[in-house]
């Protein structure tokens, strides 16, 4: 037997050789027995805004996303579906480096926004999160006025020269988010005093206010009633004209209604991605089929 010591303790244990002393291999422990699944369908698009390649995410020892490659097409909505815990939110958070804020979370592989690697050391992450904005499951307006919620980002980024310009940005953002008519006479009231659906549209306005290129939405309607949900879905469809949107949803009806492409995740693997109609009517992978026909998840 070859007893050459090697640095990766996982592999050393697996092949029964000593672990080399000295600089420790800091690579996280992988499950060497399970290969990531190959994605079926169409990973790349003609006009990508973002490109993820061989992305892996680890929470400590846990391998939460395995070798995922996926394009997010410009001016399209892509939905991410799959059973609870399959890594949808984890993958979404990679796209604007929100996982950086989680202790013990490590991301490998490459993610590009247009021609820039978002892990680039010279890239300002605050700037990145303005370009790739995020809307969360639970509407989370700041405890500030409606106006100040929307003006917050533009103020931080120095986007307005004076109050007139700032007013303009606030108004335009609220209009794009379909909320202006409902709040134009009470901009000084607390954002937290709005209804759930209005709060979520306020959060969308807040994301839009800094002129993002991409908007990430993690189950944006799961806390909303059907009418507020329909309003947000309509809005997503309108926003597609100017923005690129990636949405995580548990509702297959919602994915079918709002998205042009659908990605199905399963236990950390991107199992299948394709045109939404294709995924729902003619899934190529058995796991996708089981999920969309309700046999799993
Ligand atoms: N902060 C964290 N620390 C450790 N493990 C985590 C953390 N966040 C997520 N995980 C684990 O990573 C895996 C993927 O979680 P993730 O939240 O991305 O799944 P999800 O598909 O969004 O699930 P859901 O549909 O329930 O929101 C799960 O096994 C989860 O337990
Ligand atoms: Mg989630």
Task: Provide structural commentary.
The chain is of the alpha/beta class and 297 residues long. The protein has one domain: P-loop containing nucleotide triphosphate hydrolases (Rossmann fold, 3-Layer(aba) Sandwich), CATH 3.40.50. The chain has helices at 9-15, 88-94, 125-131, 146-156, 163-176, 180-183, 196-208, 226-239, 252-258, 276-281, 286-292, and strands spanning 40-41, 48-59, 62-73, 77-81, 105-113, 116-117, 132-135, 214-218, 244-248, 261-266, 269-275. The strands form two sheets. It has a seven-stranded mixed sheet, with helices on both faces. It has a four-stranded antiparallel sheet with strand order 3-2-5-6, with helices on one face. The longest helix is centred in the middle third of the chain and has 14 residues, at 163-176. The protein is globular, with a radius of gyration of 21 Å. Bound molecules: adenosine-5'-triphosphate and magnesium ion (MG). Magnesium ion binds next to helix 2.
User: Beta-strand level of the residues, as a percent range?
Assistant: 15-25%
Q: Biggest sheet: strands side by side, in what order?
A: 1-11-10-4-9-8-7
Spans of at least 5 consecutive residues with low confidence:
25-33
Oligomeric description of these chains: single chain
The H/E string reads HEEEEHEEHEHHHHEHEHEEHH
Give the C-level CATH assignment.
Answer: Alpha Beta
Indicate the structural class. Answer: alpha/beta
Overall CATH architecture: 3-Layer(aba) Sandwich
The CATH superfamily is P-loop containing nucleotide triphosphate hydrolases
The helix fraction, in percent, is: 25-40%
Specify the biggest β-sheet.
Answer: 7 strands, mixed
Q: Roughly what is the average pLDDT, rounded to an integer?
A: 90
Q: CATH topology, what is it called?
A: Rossmann fold
Radius of gyration over all CA atoms, rounded: 21 Å
Please tally the β strands and state the result.
11
State the shape.
globular
Q: What is the terminal-to-terminal distance? A: 46 Å
Number of domains: 1
Question: Helix count?
Answer: 11
Distinct compounds present = adenosine-5'-triphosphate, magnesium ion
């Amino acid at each position: 037997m070859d007893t050459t010591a090697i640095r990766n303790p996982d592999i050393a244990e697996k092949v029964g050789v000593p672990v080399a002393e000295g600089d420790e291999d800091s690579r996280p422990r992988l499950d060497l027995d399970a290969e990531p699944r190959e994605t079926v369908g169409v990973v790349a698009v003609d006009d990508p805004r973002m490109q993820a390649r061989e992305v892996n995410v680890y929470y400590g020892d846990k391998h939460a996303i395995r070798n995922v490659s996926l394009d997010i097409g410009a001016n399209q909505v892509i939905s991410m579906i799959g059973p609870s815990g399959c890594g949808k939110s984890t993958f979404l958070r990679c796209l604007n480096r929100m996982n950086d804020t989680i202790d013990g979370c490590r991301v490998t592989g490459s993610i590009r926004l247009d021609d820039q690697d978002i892990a680039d050391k010279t890239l300002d992450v605050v700037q990145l999160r303005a370009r790739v904005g995020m809307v969360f499951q639970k509407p989370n307006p700041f405890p500030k006025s409606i106006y100040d919620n929307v003006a917050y980002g533009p103020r931080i980024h120095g986007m307005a020269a004076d109050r007139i310009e700032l007013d303009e940005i606030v108004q335009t953002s609220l209009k794009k988010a379909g909320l202006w008519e409902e709040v134009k006479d009470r901009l000084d009231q607390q954002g937290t005093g709005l209804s759930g659906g209005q709060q979520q549209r306020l959060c969308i306005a807040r994301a839009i206010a800094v002129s993002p290129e991409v908007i990430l939405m993690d189950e944006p309607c799961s806390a909303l009633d059907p009418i507020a949900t329909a309003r947000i879905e309509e809005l997503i469809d309108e926003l597609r004209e100017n923005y690129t949107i990636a949405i995580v949803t548990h509702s297959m009806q919602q994915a079918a209604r709002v998205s042009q492409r659908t990605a199905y995740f399963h236990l950390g693997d991107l199992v299948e991605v394709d045109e939404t109609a294709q995924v729902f009517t003619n899934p190529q992978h058995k796991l996708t089929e089981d999920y969309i026909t309700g046999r799993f998840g």
